[in-house]
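Fresh eyes needed here. Kindly weigh in on this sequence plus C-alpha coordinates:
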Amino acid sequence: MLKKFLCVCYLMFLGLSVYANDAAGIVLPTGGVVFEKQDGIKMQVEALYIRPEQIEVSYLFENTTDKDITTQVFFPFPEMQAVEVFPSSGGKNPHTYDFILWVNGEYKDYQAHWVIKQNDRDISEYVSIFFRFPDEVITDQELDRRIGMLPNYIRQVLQDKKIVEWDWLVDWDKGEFQAWTMANDIYWKKQVMYFWEQTFPAKQTVAIRHQYIPTNLSSNTGQPYSKCLDTSSERYDTFMHELPPGDTKFRFNEHLHAQRYLEYILTTANNWQGPIENFNLLVESPLKSVGCFDGEEFYGGKYYTVNRQNYTPESDMSVDFVANGNIFDYEITSRPALYRIDGPVSLRKKPHGKVTAQLADKTYVWAWPDDKKGKWYPVRQNDLSGYIHKKNLVKVF
Protein backbone atom coordinates (compact mmCIF):
# COMPACT_ATOMS: atom_id res chain seq x y z
CA MET A 1 0.00 0.00 0.00
CA LEU A 2 1.34 3.39 -0.91
CA LYS A 3 2.33 5.62 1.98
CA LYS A 4 1.05 9.14 2.26
CA PHE A 5 3.67 11.81 2.59
CA LEU A 6 4.15 15.56 2.94
CA CYS A 7 5.71 17.21 -0.05
CA VAL A 8 7.35 20.56 -0.72
CA CYS A 9 7.28 20.69 -4.50
CA TYR A 10 9.67 22.93 -6.37
CA LEU A 11 9.67 23.19 -10.15
CA MET A 12 12.17 24.91 -12.39
CA PHE A 13 12.54 24.78 -16.17
CA LEU A 14 15.92 25.62 -17.76
CA GLY A 15 17.17 28.18 -15.25
CA LEU A 16 13.84 29.54 -13.96
CA SER A 17 13.62 29.13 -10.19
CA VAL A 18 10.24 28.02 -8.89
CA TYR A 19 9.69 27.03 -5.27
CA ALA A 20 6.67 25.81 -3.34
CA ASN A 21 4.88 25.33 -0.05
CA ASP A 22 4.43 22.01 1.69
CA ALA A 23 1.67 19.87 0.20
CA ALA A 24 0.39 16.36 0.72
CA GLY A 25 0.62 13.59 -1.83
CA ILE A 26 1.43 10.00 -2.61
CA VAL A 27 4.57 8.49 -4.10
CA LEU A 28 3.96 6.33 -7.17
CA PRO A 29 6.09 3.26 -7.95
CA THR A 30 7.43 5.11 -11.00
CA GLY A 31 8.74 7.91 -8.77
CA GLY A 32 6.13 10.45 -9.87
CA VAL A 33 4.19 12.66 -7.47
CA VAL A 34 0.41 13.00 -7.28
CA PHE A 35 -1.02 15.59 -4.89
CA GLU A 36 -3.99 14.74 -2.71
CA LYS A 37 -5.90 16.50 0.05
CA GLN A 38 -4.41 15.97 3.52
CA ASP A 39 -7.22 16.60 5.99
CA GLY A 40 -5.43 15.31 9.08
CA ILE A 41 -2.71 17.96 9.17
CA LYS A 42 -3.28 21.69 9.55
CA MET A 43 -0.70 24.39 8.84
CA GLN A 44 -0.88 26.72 11.83
CA VAL A 45 2.00 29.02 10.93
CA GLU A 46 4.26 29.57 7.94
CA ALA A 47 7.22 31.94 8.00
CA LEU A 48 8.77 32.36 4.55
CA TYR A 49 11.99 34.39 4.46
CA ILE A 50 13.42 35.05 0.97
CA ARG A 51 16.71 36.76 0.13
CA PRO A 52 19.04 36.52 -2.90
CA GLU A 53 21.35 33.81 -1.60
CA GLN A 54 19.12 31.92 0.80
CA ILE A 55 15.54 30.80 1.37
CA GLU A 56 14.42 29.86 4.86
CA VAL A 57 10.99 28.42 5.60
CA SER A 58 9.56 27.49 9.00
CA TYR A 59 6.27 25.67 9.51
CA LEU A 60 4.19 24.71 12.51
CA PHE A 61 1.94 21.75 11.67
CA GLU A 62 -0.82 20.38 13.86
CA ASN A 63 -2.10 16.81 13.71
CA THR A 64 -5.82 17.35 14.34
CA THR A 65 -6.64 13.62 14.51
CA ASP A 66 -6.56 11.30 17.51
CA LYS A 67 -3.97 9.01 15.89
CA ASP A 68 -0.26 9.43 15.12
CA ILE A 69 0.57 9.91 11.44
CA THR A 70 3.92 8.51 10.29
CA THR A 71 4.82 9.42 6.76
CA GLN A 72 7.60 10.21 4.31
CA VAL A 73 8.36 13.88 3.90
CA PHE A 74 9.49 14.40 0.33
CA PHE A 75 11.34 17.54 -0.74
CA PRO A 76 11.94 17.79 -4.50
CA PHE A 77 14.01 20.74 -5.66
CA PRO A 78 13.50 22.64 -8.92
CA GLU A 79 14.60 21.10 -12.17
CA MET A 80 17.84 22.72 -13.32
CA GLN A 81 20.30 22.37 -16.14
CA ALA A 82 22.63 19.47 -15.38
CA VAL A 83 25.21 20.89 -17.84
CA GLU A 84 25.71 24.62 -18.33
CA VAL A 85 26.55 25.57 -21.90
CA PHE A 86 27.08 29.19 -20.85
CA PRO A 87 28.36 28.84 -17.26
CA SER A 88 27.36 31.64 -14.89
CA SER A 89 30.20 31.01 -12.44
CA GLY A 90 33.23 31.28 -14.69
CA GLY A 91 33.20 27.54 -15.27
CA LYS A 92 33.87 26.89 -11.60
CA ASN A 93 30.50 25.43 -10.62
CA PRO A 94 29.21 23.14 -9.02
CA HIS A 95 26.02 24.50 -7.60
CA THR A 96 25.01 23.13 -4.22
CA TYR A 97 21.82 23.77 -2.28
CA ASP A 98 23.50 23.36 1.13
CA PHE A 99 20.17 22.06 2.35
CA ILE A 100 19.74 21.94 6.14
CA LEU A 101 16.72 20.48 7.93
CA TRP A 102 15.48 20.84 11.50
CA VAL A 103 12.50 19.13 13.15
CA ASN A 104 11.42 20.52 16.51
CA GLY A 105 14.73 22.35 16.72
CA GLU A 106 16.88 19.25 16.16
CA TYR A 107 18.97 18.52 13.06
CA LYS A 108 17.32 15.87 10.93
CA ASP A 109 19.08 13.52 8.53
CA TYR A 110 17.66 12.89 5.10
CA GLN A 111 18.37 10.85 1.99
CA ALA A 112 18.89 12.03 -1.59
CA HIS A 113 17.42 10.83 -4.86
CA TRP A 114 17.98 12.44 -8.23
CA VAL A 115 16.80 12.12 -11.82
CA ILE A 116 18.31 13.42 -15.09
CA LYS A 117 16.12 13.74 -18.17
CA GLN A 118 16.65 14.41 -21.87
CA ASN A 119 13.35 16.12 -22.65
CA ASP A 120 10.92 13.68 -20.98
CA ARG A 121 13.25 10.68 -21.30
CA ASP A 122 14.89 9.47 -18.07
CA ILE A 123 18.60 8.94 -18.81
CA SER A 124 19.78 8.74 -15.19
CA GLU A 125 21.12 5.18 -15.48
CA TYR A 126 23.42 6.23 -18.33
CA VAL A 127 24.71 9.65 -17.25
CA SER A 128 24.73 9.61 -13.44
CA ILE A 129 28.40 8.54 -13.65
CA PHE A 130 29.28 12.05 -14.86
CA PHE A 131 28.18 13.69 -11.57
CA ARG A 132 30.03 13.34 -8.28
CA PHE A 133 27.16 14.35 -5.99
CA PRO A 134 23.40 14.91 -6.45
CA ASP A 135 23.19 18.67 -6.93
CA GLU A 136 26.40 19.12 -8.95
CA VAL A 137 26.15 21.16 -12.14
CA ILE A 138 29.04 20.89 -14.61
CA THR A 139 30.07 22.90 -17.67
CA ASP A 140 29.95 21.53 -21.21
CA GLN A 141 33.75 21.44 -21.27
CA GLU A 142 33.84 19.41 -18.06
CA LEU A 143 31.28 17.03 -19.56
CA ASP A 144 33.59 16.61 -22.58
CA ARG A 145 36.49 15.80 -20.26
CA ARG A 146 34.51 13.23 -18.26
CA ILE A 147 33.09 11.52 -21.36
CA GLY A 148 36.61 11.35 -22.79
CA MET A 149 37.76 9.38 -19.74
CA LEU A 150 35.27 6.57 -20.43
CA PRO A 151 36.17 3.32 -22.23
CA ASN A 152 35.31 3.34 -25.94
CA TYR A 153 32.57 0.72 -25.63
CA ILE A 154 30.67 2.82 -23.03
CA ARG A 155 30.92 5.94 -25.21
CA GLN A 156 29.57 3.87 -28.09
CA VAL A 157 26.54 2.83 -26.02
CA LEU A 158 25.84 6.49 -25.17
CA GLN A 159 26.11 7.40 -28.84
CA ASP A 160 23.83 4.55 -29.93
CA LYS A 161 21.28 5.67 -27.36
CA LYS A 162 21.53 9.22 -28.81
CA ILE A 163 22.54 10.64 -25.43
CA VAL A 164 25.94 12.09 -26.42
CA GLU A 165 27.60 12.97 -29.71
CA TRP A 166 30.88 14.24 -31.13
CA ASP A 167 30.14 17.82 -32.15
CA TRP A 168 31.44 21.38 -32.24
CA LEU A 169 31.70 23.61 -29.16
CA VAL A 170 32.49 27.31 -28.89
CA ASP A 171 34.75 28.77 -26.20
CA TRP A 172 35.60 32.45 -25.70
CA ASP A 173 39.30 31.62 -25.39
CA LYS A 174 39.73 28.56 -27.62
CA GLY A 175 37.24 29.47 -30.32
CA GLU A 176 35.38 26.65 -32.06
CA PHE A 177 36.57 23.10 -31.44
CA GLN A 178 35.27 19.54 -31.55
CA ALA A 179 34.24 17.80 -28.34
CA TRP A 180 31.85 15.36 -26.71
CA THR A 181 28.53 17.02 -25.93
CA MET A 182 24.83 16.37 -25.33
CA ALA A 183 23.17 14.87 -28.39
CA ASN A 184 20.90 16.95 -30.62
CA ASP A 185 21.47 20.08 -28.50
CA ILE A 186 18.95 18.80 -25.95
CA TYR A 187 19.81 20.15 -22.51
CA TRP A 188 19.74 17.63 -19.67
CA LYS A 189 17.40 18.55 -16.82
CA LYS A 190 18.25 17.39 -13.32
CA GLN A 191 15.93 17.21 -10.33
CA VAL A 192 17.22 16.49 -6.84
CA MET A 193 14.89 15.15 -4.16
CA TYR A 194 15.48 14.90 -0.41
CA PHE A 195 13.25 12.76 1.80
CA TRP A 196 12.91 11.50 5.37
CA GLU A 197 10.40 9.75 7.62
CA GLN A 198 8.40 11.89 10.01
CA THR A 199 5.88 11.17 12.79
CA PHE A 200 3.16 13.69 13.59
CA PRO A 201 1.84 12.81 17.08
CA ALA A 202 -1.91 12.92 17.64
CA LYS A 203 -3.28 16.29 18.77
CA GLN A 204 0.23 17.79 18.83
CA THR A 205 2.28 20.23 16.76
CA VAL A 206 5.52 19.64 14.88
CA ALA A 207 7.89 22.43 13.82
CA ILE A 208 9.72 21.85 10.52
CA ARG A 209 12.34 24.28 9.27
CA HIS A 210 14.68 24.15 6.30
CA GLN A 211 17.06 26.51 4.57
CA TYR A 212 18.99 26.27 1.31
CA ILE A 213 20.65 28.26 -1.45
CA PRO A 214 18.16 28.81 -4.28
CA THR A 215 18.97 28.68 -7.97
CA ASN A 216 18.22 32.09 -9.46
CA LEU A 217 17.64 33.43 -12.93
CA SER A 218 20.02 36.33 -13.62
CA SER A 219 19.27 39.33 -15.83
CA ASN A 220 21.90 40.84 -18.11
CA THR A 221 19.59 43.65 -19.24
CA GLY A 222 18.43 44.83 -15.83
CA GLN A 223 14.81 44.22 -16.79
CA PRO A 224 12.61 42.29 -14.33
CA TYR A 225 11.13 38.89 -15.14
CA SER A 226 7.95 39.23 -13.01
CA LYS A 227 5.08 38.99 -15.49
CA CYS A 228 2.62 41.26 -13.67
CA LEU A 229 4.91 44.32 -13.78
CA ASP A 230 4.24 47.12 -16.24
CA THR A 231 7.77 48.32 -16.93
CA SER A 232 6.47 51.16 -19.14
CA SER A 233 4.44 52.68 -16.28
CA GLU A 234 5.37 55.91 -14.55
CA ARG A 235 5.30 54.12 -11.21
CA TYR A 236 7.90 51.59 -12.31
CA ASP A 237 10.14 54.25 -13.88
CA THR A 238 10.04 56.41 -10.75
CA PHE A 239 10.70 53.42 -8.49
CA MET A 240 13.78 52.40 -10.48
CA HIS A 241 15.21 55.94 -10.25
CA GLU A 242 14.77 56.45 -6.51
CA LEU A 243 17.07 55.33 -3.71
CA PRO A 244 16.01 54.91 -0.09
CA PRO A 245 16.67 58.02 2.09
CA GLY A 246 20.31 58.45 3.07
CA ASP A 247 21.81 56.44 0.19
CA THR A 248 24.08 58.75 -1.77
CA LYS A 249 25.92 56.17 -3.91
CA PHE A 250 23.79 56.95 -6.91
CA ARG A 251 23.23 59.72 -9.43
CA PHE A 252 19.66 60.68 -10.27
CA ASN A 253 20.03 60.09 -14.01
CA GLU A 254 21.15 56.51 -13.43
CA HIS A 255 18.77 53.56 -13.42
CA LEU A 256 18.64 50.73 -10.91
CA HIS A 257 18.68 47.18 -12.21
CA ALA A 258 16.76 43.99 -11.47
CA GLN A 259 19.57 41.45 -11.19
CA ARG A 260 18.24 38.21 -9.68
CA TYR A 261 14.86 36.52 -9.99
CA LEU A 262 12.94 33.60 -8.51
CA GLU A 263 9.38 32.33 -8.29
CA TYR A 264 7.73 30.69 -5.30
CA ILE A 265 4.68 28.45 -5.52
CA LEU A 266 2.19 29.22 -2.74
CA THR A 267 -0.92 27.46 -4.01
CA THR A 268 0.17 23.95 -2.97
CA ALA A 269 -0.58 25.02 0.62
CA ASN A 270 -4.25 24.57 -0.28
CA ASN A 271 -3.76 20.80 0.06
CA TRP A 272 -3.81 21.11 3.85
CA GLN A 273 -6.79 21.11 6.17
CA GLY A 274 -8.31 24.57 5.75
CA PRO A 275 -6.35 27.78 5.11
CA ILE A 276 -2.96 28.71 6.54
CA GLU A 277 -3.90 30.10 9.94
CA ASN A 278 -1.00 32.56 9.99
CA PHE A 279 1.01 33.25 6.83
CA ASN A 280 4.08 35.49 7.09
CA LEU A 281 6.35 36.56 4.22
CA LEU A 282 9.56 38.57 4.39
CA VAL A 283 11.53 39.49 1.26
CA GLU A 284 14.94 41.03 1.91
CA SER A 285 16.87 42.73 -0.88
CA PRO A 286 20.16 44.67 -0.98
CA LEU A 287 18.18 47.75 -1.98
CA LYS A 288 14.66 47.09 -3.25
CA SER A 289 12.44 44.37 -4.65
CA VAL A 290 9.63 44.22 -7.18
CA GLY A 291 7.40 41.35 -8.07
CA CYS A 292 3.97 39.73 -7.98
CA PHE A 293 1.98 38.65 -4.94
CA ASP A 294 -1.68 37.60 -4.98
CA GLY A 295 -1.69 38.34 -8.70
CA GLU A 296 -0.78 42.00 -8.24
CA GLU A 297 2.49 43.88 -8.50
CA PHE A 298 4.34 44.94 -5.38
CA TYR A 299 7.09 47.50 -4.87
CA GLY A 300 9.21 46.88 -1.79
CA GLY A 301 12.15 48.60 -0.17
CA LYS A 302 14.94 46.71 1.54
CA TYR A 303 12.16 44.72 3.23
CA TYR A 304 8.77 43.71 1.89
CA THR A 305 6.44 42.01 4.37
CA VAL A 306 3.05 40.29 4.22
CA ASN A 307 1.18 39.00 7.28
CA ARG A 308 -2.14 37.25 6.69
CA GLN A 309 -4.52 35.30 8.90
CA ASN A 310 -6.61 32.42 7.51
CA TYR A 311 -4.85 32.81 4.18
CA THR A 312 -5.75 30.73 1.14
CA PRO A 313 -3.26 31.43 -1.69
CA GLU A 314 -4.97 31.84 -5.05
CA SER A 315 -1.85 32.56 -7.09
CA ASP A 316 1.92 32.14 -6.83
CA MET A 317 4.51 34.85 -6.32
CA SER A 318 7.67 36.09 -7.99
CA VAL A 319 10.50 38.34 -6.83
CA ASP A 320 13.01 40.47 -8.75
CA PHE A 321 15.84 41.70 -6.55
CA VAL A 322 16.87 45.26 -7.34
CA ALA A 323 20.37 46.50 -6.56
CA ASN A 324 22.72 49.42 -7.14
CA GLY A 325 25.92 47.50 -7.81
CA ASN A 326 26.75 43.80 -7.62
CA ILE A 327 24.02 41.81 -5.88
CA PHE A 328 26.34 38.80 -5.59
CA ASP A 329 28.34 40.68 -2.92
CA TYR A 330 25.30 41.04 -0.68
CA GLU A 331 25.80 39.97 2.93
CA ILE A 332 23.20 39.65 5.67
CA THR A 333 23.81 42.13 8.49
CA SER A 334 21.05 41.07 10.89
CA ARG A 335 18.72 38.14 11.44
CA PRO A 336 14.97 38.78 11.52
CA ALA A 337 12.63 36.47 13.43
CA LEU A 338 8.89 35.95 13.63
CA TYR A 339 7.05 37.06 16.80
CA ARG A 340 3.46 36.92 18.04
CA ILE A 341 1.85 39.96 19.64
CA ASP A 342 0.90 39.63 23.32
CA GLY A 343 -1.50 42.52 23.34
CA PRO A 344 -3.19 44.44 21.93
CA VAL A 345 -0.21 46.76 21.74
CA SER A 346 0.81 50.17 20.38
CA LEU A 347 3.31 50.49 17.55
CA ARG A 348 5.56 53.51 18.10
CA LYS A 349 7.64 55.59 15.72
CA LYS A 350 10.61 55.21 18.06
CA PRO A 351 11.13 53.80 21.59
CA HIS A 352 8.78 55.67 23.98
CA GLY A 353 7.79 57.76 20.95
CA LYS A 354 4.58 58.69 19.19
CA VAL A 355 1.99 55.94 18.66
CA THR A 356 1.50 55.25 14.94
CA ALA A 357 -0.79 52.18 15.00
CA GLN A 358 -2.47 49.54 17.16
CA LEU A 359 -1.68 45.85 16.65
CA ALA A 360 -4.19 43.20 17.69
CA ASP A 361 -3.54 40.37 20.12
CA LYS A 362 -2.11 37.14 18.63
CA THR A 363 -1.20 38.72 15.30
CA TYR A 364 2.31 38.28 13.90
CA VAL A 365 5.20 40.64 13.16
CA TRP A 366 8.75 40.36 11.87
CA ALA A 367 11.30 41.73 14.36
CA TRP A 368 15.05 42.35 14.35
CA PRO A 369 16.52 41.40 17.76
CA ASP A 370 20.04 42.31 16.60
CA ASP A 371 18.92 45.91 16.05
CA LYS A 372 16.98 46.36 19.30
CA LYS A 373 17.32 49.54 21.35
CA GLY A 374 17.27 48.48 24.95
CA LYS A 375 14.03 46.52 25.36
CA TRP A 376 12.47 47.96 22.19
CA TYR A 377 12.48 45.88 19.02
CA PRO A 378 12.14 47.25 15.48
CA VAL A 379 9.25 45.42 13.81
CA ARG A 380 7.34 45.27 10.53
CA GLN A 381 3.82 44.08 9.75
CA ASN A 382 2.51 44.51 6.22
CA ASP A 383 2.99 48.25 5.47
CA LEU A 384 3.51 49.19 9.13
CA SER A 385 6.88 49.61 10.81
CA GLY A 386 8.06 50.93 14.15
CA TYR A 387 9.01 49.77 17.64
CA ILE A 388 7.37 47.45 20.18
CA HIS A 389 8.49 46.73 23.74
CA LYS A 390 9.99 43.29 24.31
CA LYS A 391 7.34 42.36 26.92
CA ASN A 392 4.68 42.47 24.17
CA LEU A 393 6.49 40.02 21.86
CA VAL A 394 6.49 36.21 22.00
CA LYS A 395 9.01 34.53 19.69
CA VAL A 396 7.52 31.96 17.27
CA PHE A 397 10.50 31.03 15.06
About this structure: Residues 1-16, 26-35, 88-93 have pLDDT under 50 and may be disordered. The first helix runs from residue 124 to 127. The first strand starts at residue 4 and ends at 8. The CA atoms of residues 323 and 364 lie 29 Å apart.
